Amino acid sequence: MAREIFDILTFDYNIVEDIDITTTDPNWTNVISVSTLERENGVYKITFSLKFHLNSTSQSFLYRFSLDGGNTWGPAYEKEVKDRHNTEVVEVIDMINHTGGQIEVFCQCTREGTATCEVIKGFISVERKG
What we know:
Structural class: mainly beta
CATH class: Mainly Beta
Number of helices: 1
């Protein structure tokens, strides 16, 4: 049976909006996740994008990702804003060699101190590249 190109090249995504970040380090808020159906072996591109507002220039917004359903977490990344009224965007792109099965990607965020913090929009995609 011939395989269709759409059976091989897959794209899964999730978008969230208006998530208040009320936790402070070392506690984390689950912000966004995407889970695929069973996927074949191959190279997959994972894209994360977070648009956020932090009402402080002396405190930080922190975020981290898990590529295995929350069992393990990558490093925490930290971002400060230059102006209390700015909206910032962070984007991370990662390539993974997937050995088959479901792909589950999670993102968590937190903040330092008592500043008001909101993820205005979050996006995660999983795309097969080869």
